């Protein structure tokens, strides 16, 4: 879950931001939905959950609650999701988001594969 809070400056800042919802199992966080990027009109939603299928609806509940908060702030929720993000795409769909366009994700660094077959 550590990838979800750096845009807010860490887990404590995210918790104080009023831009996140979390689900707990006992004293352990098992799902988080938060505004990952905050714009003047849109708030891009990010969601993470522990890898347990029984907890998937907790992520949906967090995302739905966050979207309600985003709308109450007068913003529009958006959800950016890679085509290879198999858990994120159905979660976004179930939360009411619909694809608007597909994108390619590029990164800088040493190549992980070479040649024509790698582009496939």
Overview of this structure, please?
With 120 residues, the protein is an alpha+beta fold. Helices cover 28% and strands 23% of the residues. A 4-stranded mixed beta sheet has the order 1-2-3-4, with helices on one face. A hairpin with a 2-residue loop joins strand 1 and strand 2 (28-38). The model is unreliable at 115-120 (pLDDT under 50).
What's this entry about, in short?
The protein is α+β, with helices and mostly antiparallel strands.
Q: What class, by secondary structure content?
A: alpha+beta
Question: What's the rounded overall pLDDT mean?
Answer: 85
- The topology string of helices and strands comes to HEEEHEHH
Low confidence ranges: 115-120
Q: What's the main sheet like?
A: 4 strands, mixed
Gross morphology is globular
Strand content: 15-25%
Features:
single chain, four-stranded mixed β-sheet, alpha+beta, 120 residues, disordered C terminus, 4 helices
Helix-strand blueprint:
Blueprint: H1 11-16, E1 20-25, E2 28-38, E3 42-49, H2 56-72, E4 76-78, H3 88-94, H4 116-119
Parallel strand pairs: 3-4
Antiparallel strand pairs: 1-2, 2-3
């Amino acid at each position: 879950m550590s990838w979800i809070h750096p845009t807010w400056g860490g887990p404590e800042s995210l918790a104080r931001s009023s831009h996140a919802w979390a689900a707990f199992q006992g004293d352990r966080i098992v799902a988080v939905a938060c505004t990952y990027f905050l714009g003047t009109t849109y708030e891009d939603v990010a969601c993470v959950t522990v890898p347990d299928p029984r907890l998937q609806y907790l992520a949906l509940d967090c995302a739905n609650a966050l979207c309600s908060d985003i709308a109450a702030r007068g913003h529009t929720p958006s959800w950016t999701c890679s085509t290879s993000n198999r858990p994120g795409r159905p979660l976004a769909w179930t939360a009411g988001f619909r694809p608007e366009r597909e994108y390619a994700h590029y990164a800088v660094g040493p190549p992980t594969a070479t040649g024509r077959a790698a582009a496939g």
